Write a sequence for this structure.
């Protein structure tokens, strides 16, 4: 067994003394000849009903055998996830889609060819082999073929079908590196495969193909425009962007307050100069009350703020950089004990739709307009 980081090892030793928990194995995927052995071990654990966290191109996943109801139950328990919130089944071969889901009109095949392997999940009618425990009692199943090489090799070693939600405690920001997985999951799962920082940093796009018109249930890296090029008209579940909506989102998980940091977060929207002035004013007032303050800024504005901790998500022009940094920054604020945070708002076009969706959820839809 090897550890990825001295700091993390100290943290884990401390936690193991606090609570008597199961031993979690940590394995660094370092490109050496030993990787194959580690993946074989992960596959054995998964086949035996155990849980393994692993890197994907979006965020880290918490994997269990998707066809074993007991594994899915364990995933819900480890995350503290409500059992009506279904899991995404990850596959590593196009041909395996047909074993678990129906594609009556060929649309699944069409978008699989366009976007798989990659950060796109589709909802389809499930076949009987997929247990209700994995789909939260639904007759549909969410399926994704990730592109990350460690994910693909691990899924193969596990027999081809791995149910995996994000590898965080329910309600916390999804983990973008193995140290954040360890923070939430050490002592609760069998193994963590450390494949370094993830590439995208936000969860996959989810598209529902069970209705006549395809609908995006969760925005992500694959945008509405990209899907429309392949499928024709695609709608977006409006309940996920509109805080005032009283309707239930179609993806059960989108109704929960997700991705949240421990402190209070608000998004400040408006003309850039006024946003800076408003955030500085709010931070000053919070500091006067003795609170530790934080600002989520951009490269263009980072030098203009006064707060205890000011972090840039990257250039406002670079949506990929913003997506990549958002969850890491929310976790860093937690580590620093930041109590009150303010964020600038971002464009909600293209991938910005996914960024704003996650940011607004992290803020519990608390928006201040200036
Ligand atoms: P996570 O596993 O943390 O990435 O979250 C998976 C998301 O997919 C949750 O919001 C689930 O509610 C959603 N999901 C999974 N399966 C289905 C399904 N069959 N129908 C609708 N949404 C689903
Ligand atoms: Mg999640």
């Amino acid at each position: 067994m090897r550890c990825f980081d001295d700091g993390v090892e100290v943290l884990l030793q401390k936690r193991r003394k606090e609570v008597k928990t199961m031993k979690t194995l940590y394995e660094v995927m370092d490109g050496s000849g030993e990787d194959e052995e580690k993946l074989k071990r992960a596959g054995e654990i998964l086949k035996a009903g155990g849980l393994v966290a692993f890197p994907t191109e979006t965020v880290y996943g918490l994997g269990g055998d998707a066809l074993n109801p007991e594994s899915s139950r364990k995933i819900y328990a480890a995350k503290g996830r409500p059992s009506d919130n279904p899991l995404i089944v990850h596959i590593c071969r196009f041909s395996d889609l047909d074993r678990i889901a129906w594609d009556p009109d060929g649309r699944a095949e069409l978008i699989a060819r366009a976007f798989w392997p990659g950060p796109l999940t589709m909802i389809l009618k499930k076949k009987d082999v997929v247990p209700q425990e994995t789909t939260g009692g639904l007759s549909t199943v969410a399926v994704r073929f990730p592109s990350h090489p460690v994910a693909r090799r691990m899924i193969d070693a596990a027999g081809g079908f791995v149910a995996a939600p994000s590898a965080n405690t329910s309600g916390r920001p999804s983990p973008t590196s193995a140290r954040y997985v360890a923070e939430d999951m050490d002592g609760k799962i069998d193994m963590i495969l450390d494949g370094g920082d993830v590439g995208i940093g936000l969860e996959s796009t989810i598209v529902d193909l069970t209705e006549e018109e395809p609908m995006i249930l969760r925005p992500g890296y694959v945008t509405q425009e990209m899907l429309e090029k392949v499928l024709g008209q695609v709608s977006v579940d409006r309940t996920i962007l509109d805080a005032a909506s009283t309707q239930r989102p179609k993806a059960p998980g989108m109704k929960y307050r997700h991705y949240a940091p421990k402190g209070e977060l608000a998004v400040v929207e408006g003309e850039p100069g006024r946003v800076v002035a408003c955030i500085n004013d709010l931070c000053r007032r919070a500091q006067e009350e003795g609170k530790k303050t934080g600002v989520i800024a951009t490269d263009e504005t980072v030098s203009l703020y006064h707060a205890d901790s000011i972090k840039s998500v990257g250039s406002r022009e670079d949506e990929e950089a913003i997506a990549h940094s958002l969850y890491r920054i929310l976790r860093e604020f937690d580590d620093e004990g930041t109590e009150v945070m303010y964020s600038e708002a971002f464009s909600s076009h293209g991938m910005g739709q996914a960024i704003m969706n996650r940011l607004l959820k992290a803020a519990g839809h608390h928006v201040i307009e200036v």
About this structure: The radius of gyration is 20 Å. Residues 165-166, 174 surround magnesium ion (ligand 2) (CB under 6 Å). The chain has eleven helices and 16 strands.
